[in-house]
Amino acid sequence: MYRALYRKWRPAAFRDVVGQQAITTALKNQLLHDKVAHAYLFTGTRGTGKTTCAKIFAKAVNCPNRTDADPCNECAVCRGIDDGSVLDVVEIDAASNNGVDNIRDLREETVYTPSEGKYKVYIIDEVHMLSTAAFNALLKTMEEPPPHVIFILATTEIHKVPATILSRCQRYDFKRIAVEDIQARLLEVAGHEKIQLDEPAAGLIARLADGAMRDALSILDTCAGVSEQVDEALVRKMAGVTDRSYLFELSDALARQDAPAVLTQIASLRQASVDMKRLCDELIVHYRNLMLAAVPGAQNLLNGVSREEQEEYERHAQNISAAQAVQCIKTLCAALDKMGKGVDARIELELAVYELCYPTPVVQAAPAAAASAAHGGATVFAAASVAAPPSSQAFVSAPAPTAPTPQKAPVAAPQTTPEHSAANQGQETPFEPWAKVLEVMQGKDKLLSAALKDSRAYYDGKRVLIDGSELFLEYMRKNEFSSEMVKSVLQQVTGVRYPIGPYKKKRGQETENQPMTADATLEQLSSAGVDVVYINETEGE
């Protein structure tokens, strides 16, 4: 029966393990000096050798003919551990045996001495999948295990393992295997298997494996099943990887703000069965490479790309700044996060690229163009408005606009130069952008917006003074979150970080600013020529 390459070429000794020299050296030294611990924790990404090293260690502690620190792999114990006939080494998959009853059965078995070897070794793979009750059941046994028991826990998600378990284990972190090490191992395996693998193809497989040797051997096995001559074109075809040129075409179209071209290409890739989540992830990595290529001296961090691709990135990085690349990465990461919550992946990706093509302008502060109104000395100012981009139907069928849409005047804000501040020190003038602040506040905090309704604000050269009720001002003094919200909205509207404070009315101003009564209002309307009819309620009774 045919054995897959990753099984056939699984390391049987520490010397065969690739890319984890520090860990294998530490384990070998413990074996040589007879300082074997009772519990180990192996953590790292998939395919980096966690379970492989666990099995080699289990064989080494029980092998009677051990040479140096490696098992002989020839004795009955080593062969029995490999084929599963020796019951002293038990492999448990915590993903399917994660209940408390499974751990209780394991705990009861630990009291029995090993039958053939020196130690009973329990290898618990994906240990983070154990339930809370199962972890609690395992804890006591790990704290005071029998002298003939060794636990080896393996996990890809170390953050899910309780701290009480971590503190009782020797932890070893398995790093991703370097591209060069994977490539060398692939060429070695291909030579023994009579597979004609060229170096560019081996390099591409190593990059696609993303640090996992098992994935690399699986890709090679897939390609070798089609042809004994494995080249780069065959690897791209079998791994479902197309030429990276489409990523550069997408980023170039985004740099031109050519939304129709970007959306058309996304539609074409989707028609070719390209997964939208994978495309979004590839774009994130693509912009990371552009960011590194745009930063002087960071080009050597472009790992996992060929020399030709590195030159391509360096050439395209001349048309984009590192800040622009960072913004693209943040937008695409937000879209990828929403895709993981069940939202339609294509729509989220289209919204992300549309946002990158038509970024929302930031409201900027501008000199005031004040015009005095008839009442209260209030100043009239224009509210900022951002021209909306064309509708989705319009920009899918028509080219992107070539000229920016005219915008209205931005919100006026008080001047903040030292001369202006000094001149206005102690002089309180109406704060012109306050109406816009109240408008923006409605979308931020409904409760705070209601409390600020009909309020006024003044500027004394240093602070924005809010004219509100005593109850509101007392609330603001005690509620730091609301004060910070007001400051944040002020900065959003004006572009300046203003301190705030209460507005204290001057003597005589209390009656001046009081609203008119209903009778006074009716008298004012009557004097202006409006017919006012008084209805006596008692007459209607």
Structure notes:
- Helices cover 48% and strands 9% of the residues.
- It has 541 residues and is of the alpha/beta class.
- The strands form four sheets. The protein has a five-stranded parallel beta sheet with strand order 2-3-4-1-5, covered by helices on one side.
- The termini are far apart.
Q: Record the strand order, biggest sheet.
A: 2-3-4-1-5
Please count the helical segments.
25
**Structural class, from secondary structure content?**
alpha/beta
Radius of gyration: 36 Å
Shape: extended
Measured by DSSP, the beta-strand proportion falls in 5-15%
Overall residue-averaged pLDDT value? 78
The helical percent reads 40-55%
Sheet with most strands: 5 strands, parallel
- Total strand segments: 13
Q: Give the termini distance in whole angstroms.
A: 105 Å
Uncertain residue segments: 362-424, 510-516, 537-541
EC number: 2.7.7.7
Catalytic activity: DNA(n) + a 2'-deoxyribonucleoside 5'-triphosphate = DNA(n+1) + diphosphate
GO molecular function: ATP binding; DNA binding; DNA-directed DNA polymerase activity; metal ion binding
Enzyme class: transferase
